[in-house]
Write a structure and sequence with these properties.
The protein has 13 helices and 6 strands. The protein is mostly helical. The protein folds into 2 domains: about 200 residues, Rossmann fold (3-Layer(aba) Sandwich); about 90 residues, Tyrosyl-Transfer RNA Synthetase (Orthogonal Bundle), CATH 1.10.240. The strands form 2 sheets. It has a 3-stranded mixed beta sheet. Strands 2-3-4 form a 3-stranded parallel beta sheet. Helix 2 crosses helix 11, helix 3 crosses helix 6 and helix 6 crosses helix 7. The two termini are about 30 Å apart.
Length: about 375
Amino acid sequence: MGAFHLLCDSGIGLNGFLVSPRGACNMEEIVVTEEHPARLVALSAAQPTGQLTIGNLFGAIQNWIPLQDHHDTLFCVVDLHALTVRQDPRQLRKHIMELAAIYLAAGIDPEKSVVFIQSHVHQHAELAWILSTFAQLGELERMTQFKDKAQRHRHNVNAGLFTYPVLMAADILLYGTHVVPVGEDQKQHLELTRDIAIRFNNLYGPVFQVPEPMIQSQGAARIRDLQNPEKKMSKSAESDLAKVMMLDDADTVLKKFKKAVTDSLGKIRFDETNQAGVTNLLTIWCAATGHSREEALAHFSHDLYGKLKVETAEAVNAVLTPIRERYHLLMDDPMELERILVRGAERAAQRAEKMMVRVLDVLGLPVHAEIRRRG
């Protein structure tokens, strides 16, 4: 999962990320032109591969919400990416709709943002094919994530897994994305996106916005595994006790936090080296309540681990309860959810078609007269 928006001059942005100095700029120097519209584009995406954890919520989704008031925001369920591993068709359809509902339940407003499913906008796949002719074989072979996944899925090392970064490049470049907050596992893919955009622009002019990476700031929440806090919380963790899912009921959330790993030191403090479990609980409490680290230490200064676990669970449930309620309302009204997604796809496709007209034109490919008229 990732969010896309512009930040400048190495400052902390609305979603808790820092711009790499490599692409630093001064916001005051940006002039509103076709290249720099008044509301810059932010695009965020996630794969529909099952439920999301509170790590996804506090580390990403919660930081997307404010972007809607300051950016031209799009939120995409990237279902085509999920096909690189074999999926049960019924489960995949279910997960796609569930993820869209979670977006909306968490606070994404379809009146402010474009919410859509990747496969509903055919230009993603169309641009991916074109960009694949600008990606070098050696570049794709060097992608460490491909090597890792090929090792873990030896029975299905398909071409889609190999060209996954090219489809990601199409997702980013199709909407003129400026800056991309990426996790460690996606930084290399973003570098490839930049290289492809620059290579294309050098041949055909400034067609694509070259995206810049954003680095997560120190203040952004990094949620760890409840049973092994040396690892990040992941929905693929084998133990259910290791992860808190966004749709877990209140009793399940409390149970998981009560069984969270701590230590025998008996001190509530931030110490990632010696007290990773306690530090993780404090981090989650801060993310759920909005309090600072200093406020957390003052609040729990004379308490035992048991109280820290219970209060962290209560704080998380206070955030999750309204999300769960809105989610179930949406899932109980599939026609309304589908209406939102159809409208979102129409709006996304209008933008994507304009970009594809530019791309086809500069490449010398014929553009259908009706498409040219609309674009």
